Structure to design on (491 residues):
């Protein structure tokens, strides 16, 4: 399996060569003209132009406000400006980049601690440099609304004590997302952070491959139906300690690795990112997570279609190549999606049915509160077939359980605004291919994450939750750098 899957990294190169051969033929030339015409109609569409022109991108004044000036004055009167001059705690980018890159390698408490250090560092920097302008975050309003609803959900929880920790961690990571948005203020910093994240993803994947080879780590009997998949004896969890959560993490990282690979200059860098992508793709296979595979498939389709829409003609060929190259174990595992004979699938469906029945009884309006304790307090009365669960195995259902239908609507608003910001950057055209690839990677990685989130509660793992909020900030930054550059050119 390992030797066969190493060939996957060369599929992109083969598809490009195949496309070059096809485009010289008469059908290829006709198809290219058709795609160009369709692309022109797409870009001229009123609906597309409206979607990709969000009002949150309109330039507004970012001068320091009255409240900030007062706090800065207090800061100076306490002589903190002299005390902290030259201090490492004023370098908020260092702290934010450190925790973002190392999140999959650190324990949850370590991620939380470094996140708080990054937040404090950003606050100190804002006080230390009173004239430092803060960029407008396009996601600030939906983030604030979601945080408020989540806090209300915690205060009205059926188990307040059990909801406190989950709420505190969630709000801390959301606040860190806002801090990260201001800390990464140049393209060089964004590129460096993405490179560090891809390197960390390769390290996590390398450890996962070693787990598979030597049988390290915990294995749960619930992870695989031995009757249907007798050939699968081990599923990789790596540092995430769960194959589905590892797959969720890799769904975010693989598109970033692909963007770095295609935008790198120099043989050494290309070989390095080729190796990183190969290791991450191999580890993704060894998770045997069908939801993650499905999410990565959607992410890949969006990535290549956004990069070069004409490559959609090669998707059937790519599917055929994958079918030939991938082992039978992987093929049978993937094609079993939706098979109710699989205990994992039937288990999830029964949990969804029980959760929906619970929400229909009035809990859909305000939720029952964040956390496992609140969920189990009520879900036990609605469980199907004695299915015991810690959560609903669906991110969107769980958001309703945590804070009600309003929280889900705000979450959708947040995601839609994220894609509107990225769409605005991509639709206007980006001269630099590296910037374009970065925006496409953040769009496709988020799509893959949300697709898998329909089969798993992604925020069950706090580090994955942290990376989701960080990913939102970095994707917005990648689009913001493009929009700011265009504004400067227009001026």
């Amino acid at each position: 399996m390992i030797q066969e899957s190493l060939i996957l990294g060369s599929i992109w190169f083969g598809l490009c060569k195949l496309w070059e051969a096809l485009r010289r033929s008469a059908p290829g030339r006709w198809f290219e003209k058709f795609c160009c015409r369709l692309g022109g109609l797409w870009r001229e569409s009123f609906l597309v132009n409206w979607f990709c022109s969000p009002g949150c991108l309109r330039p507004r004044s970012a001068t320091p406000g009255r409240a900030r000036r007062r706090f800065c004055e207090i800061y100076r009167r306490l002589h903190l400006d002299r005390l902290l001059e030259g201090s490492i705690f004023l370098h908020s980018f260092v702290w934010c980049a450190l925790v973002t890159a190392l999140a999959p390698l650190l324990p949850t408490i370590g991620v939380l601690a470094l996140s708080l250090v990054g937040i404090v560092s950003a606050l100190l920097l804002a006080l230390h440099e009173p004239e430092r302008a803060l960029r407008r975050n396009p996601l600030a309003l939906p983030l604030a609304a979601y945080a408020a609803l989540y806090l209300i959900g915690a205060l009205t929880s059926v188990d307040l004590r059990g909801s406190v920790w989950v709420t505190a961690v969630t709000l801390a990571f959301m606040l860190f997302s806002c801090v990260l948005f201001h800390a990464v203020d140049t393209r060089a910093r964004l590129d460096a952070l993405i490179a560090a994240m891809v390197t960390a993803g390769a390290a996590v994947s390398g450890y996962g491959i070693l787990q598979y080879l030597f049988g390290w780590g915990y294995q749960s009997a619930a992870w695989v139906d031995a009757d249907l998949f007798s050939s699968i004896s081990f599923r990789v969890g790596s540092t995430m300690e769960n194959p589905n959560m590892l797959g969720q993490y890799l769904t975010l990282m693989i598109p970033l690795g692909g963007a770095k690979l295609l935008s790198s200059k120099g043989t050494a860098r290309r070989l390095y990112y080729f190796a990183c992508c190969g290791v991450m793709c191999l580890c993704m296979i060894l998770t045997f997570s069908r939801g993650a595979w499905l999410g990565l498939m959607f992410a890949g389709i969006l990535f290549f279609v956004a990069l070069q829409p004409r490559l959609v003609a090669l998707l059937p060929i790519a599917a055929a190549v994958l079918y030939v190259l991938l082992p039978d174990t992987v093929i049978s595992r993937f094609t079993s999606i939706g098979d109710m004979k699989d205990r994992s699938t039937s288990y999830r469906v029964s949990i969804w049915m029980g959760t929906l029945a619970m929400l229909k009884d009035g809990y859909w309006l305000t939720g029952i509160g964040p956390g496992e304790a609140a969920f189990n307090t009520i879900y036990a009365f609605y469980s199907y077939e004695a299915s015991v669960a810690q959560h609903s195995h669906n991110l969107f259902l769980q958001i309703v359980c945590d804070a009600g239908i309003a929280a889900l609507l705000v979450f959708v608003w947040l995601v839609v605004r994220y894609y509107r910001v990225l769409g605005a950057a991509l639709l206007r055209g980006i001269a630099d291919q590296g910037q374009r690839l970065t925006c496409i990677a953040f769009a496709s990685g988020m799509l893959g994450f949300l697709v898998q989130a329909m089969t798993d509660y992604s925020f069950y793992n706090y580090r994955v939750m942290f990376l989701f909020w960080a990913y939102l900030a970095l994707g917005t930054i990648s689009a913001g750098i493009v929009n700011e550059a265009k504004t400067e050119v227009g001026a």
Summary: Residues 1-9, 485-491 have pLDDT under 50 and may be disordered. The radius of gyration is 23 Å. Residues 462-490 form the longest helix (29 residues). The CA atoms of residues 58 and 138 lie 10 Å apart.
